[in-house]
Structure formats: structure tokens, C-alpha cells
From TrEMBL:
Location(s), subcellular: Endoplasmic reticulum membrane; Microsome membrane
Lineage of origin: Eukaryota, Fungi, Dikarya, Ascomycota, Pezizomycotina
Originating organism: Zopfia rhizophila CBS 207.26
InterPro entries: Cyt_B5-like_heme/steroid-bd, Cyt_B5-like_heme/steroid_sf, Cyt_B5_heme-BS, Cytochrome_b5
GO cellular component, one term: endoplasmic reticulum membrane
Sequence intervals crossing the membrane: 107-127
Gene3D superfamilies to which the protein is assigned, alphabetical: Cytochrome b5-like heme/steroid binding domain (3.10.120.10)
Membrane topology: Single-pass membrane protein
Gene Ontology terms: biological process: sterol biosynthetic process
Protein known as: Cytochrome b5
Domain of life: Eukaryota
Domain Cytochrome b5 heme-binding stretches: 3-79
Amino acid sequence: MADKEFTYSDVSEHATKKDLYVVIHDKVYNASSFIDEHPGGEEVLLDVGGQDATEAFEDVGHSDEAREILEGLIVGKLLRKDGDPKPKTYEPGATSTATSDSASMGVGLYVFILIGGVLAFGAYKYLQAQQEGQ
Ligand code: HEM
């Protein structure tokens, strides 16, 4: 059953509360049995019903438990056709804050290595000078 392929137009026909498909990472899930239990409410799920919900799902930062529930709802995978909306792949760090965070972390690492190198060189020179003094 999970091997069934759906096109975007197939998925878009399932956009009601009783029959609700969502696409997350190019897999198709039937969320109708879960919608009443969704801690985030039914409204958000109905909003993305019949559509690609990857971004919405990932933006919330759902837990591993949520991902496990998702696995139980799978009905198939998405068959992309020409002219379909582009895949909404989620790239961690794609948001501006995350990018600047990781960028500053990268710079911090270089500075750390640089300072470490300078200190090691200084210590080496110091020891050398001391040895020559003896
Ligand atoms: C079928 C797909 C989905 C499943 C199985 C699911 C499952 C869950 C689960 C188990 C939680 C509890 C917290 C956690 O474990 O992370 C949660 C919270 C939440 N979900 Fe979803 N979710 C789905 C789709 C979505 C979508 C598309 C949105 C759109 C924005 C959304 C919005 C939220 C929000 C805002 C919360 C936080 C609620 C709170 O803490 O007050 N969810 N979801």
C-alpha cells in the first residue's frame, strides 16, 4: 500500500477533514485518522490538506514521536510530473538566522584554531629560548 504512487492532482482531491492527504518529503500521508488527535489542532492540517506540507511540518520542529506517527499514516509516494510545484525540501540552516548561526560558528572555529596555533608557536619559541639560555 505504501508503494502506491500519487500525482499532485490525485493528492489534491483529498483535502477534506474526513479524507485528508498531505505530502511530506515526497511521501503521501493520510492524516484523517489523526487530525482529531493532532496537538497542533485540526486547522493547520486542513490548511495543508491535499498539498505539500513539508515546510509547515518541518518549521514546527516536530518530535521523533510525531515522525513515528507519520510513518503509520503513509499511503504512498508522490509521483512528480512536469509542471508540478517544485519540491519543498526542507534544508536545515536555510533560514537566515540559522545560516548566520552556522556561519559565525564556522568563523569561531577558524579563530579558535588560529589562536591555538599562535599559542603553540609562542610556547615552542619560549621553550626553545629557555633551552638556549641554559
Ligand atoms: C500528518 C502530519 C502531522 C503529524 C503526524 C503531526 C504530529 C504532531 C505531534 C505528535 C505533535 C506534538 C508535538 C511533537 O511531538 O512534536 C504536533 C504538534 C504540533 N503540530 Fe503537528 N503534525 C503533523 C502535521 C502538522 C502540520 C502540517 C502543521 C502545520 C503547521 C503542524 C503544526 C503543529 C503545531 C503548531 C504543533 C505544536 C502544538 C503545541 O505544542 O501547542 N503539524 N504535531
